[in-house]
Amino acid sequence: MALEGRPGAVVSVSRDDAHRFSKPVVVSIRLLAGIGVEGDSHAGPTVQHRYAKKRDPTAPNLCQVHFMAAELFDDLVPTGYTVAPGELGENVTTIGIDLMTLPLGTRLHLGSEAVVSITGMRSPCSLINGYQKGLMKQLIKTDAAGAVQRRGGIMGVVVTGGIVHPSDRIRVELPVGEHLPLGVV
């Protein structure tokens, strides 16, 4: 699952204590088991995303940590968009891992301690167009066969807490048994 010749790694980490679209880049983040990113507005054992919280505030928080691949930012440049780490609201920007192809339940080991279990794909919302007009069409596309391709990153829950820094290695642990594709969370 890592790109050939390169191990997976953390490029950048971000958090924000308020529900804003982009998250400021920080020196490190602390992941808390069953909660998410300490000090982040999306941290908590129950759903924290505003739209989902309105539907069922008691639902489990499957979106404690948002991962985005730095390779996506490079792919966007020829289409006229410039995006930097944290600007699409992710907590962890990665390199060297094809995030969107990971199966459900994959565990990402970040640095020496933290472990996050992947719960699904992020469903980009229309707020992305408020950030940069037309960007959402680059993050959700339909291929020639009519299949929807999502590129807005993946979400997970913290299994084991720890501090995560840029340049920390990421080890991918695939789930045992049948590999199920990611759905939208």
UniProtKB/TrEMBL annotation:
InterPro entries: MoCF_Sase_C (IPR005302), MOSC_domain (IPR052716), Pyrv_Knase-like_insert_dom_sf (IPR011037). SUPFAM superfamilies: PK beta-barrel domain-like (SSF50800). GO terms for molecular function: catalytic activity; molybdenum ion binding; pyridoxal phosphate binding. Residues 19-173 form the MOSC domain. This is MOSC domain-containing protein. It comes from Cryobacterium lyxosi.
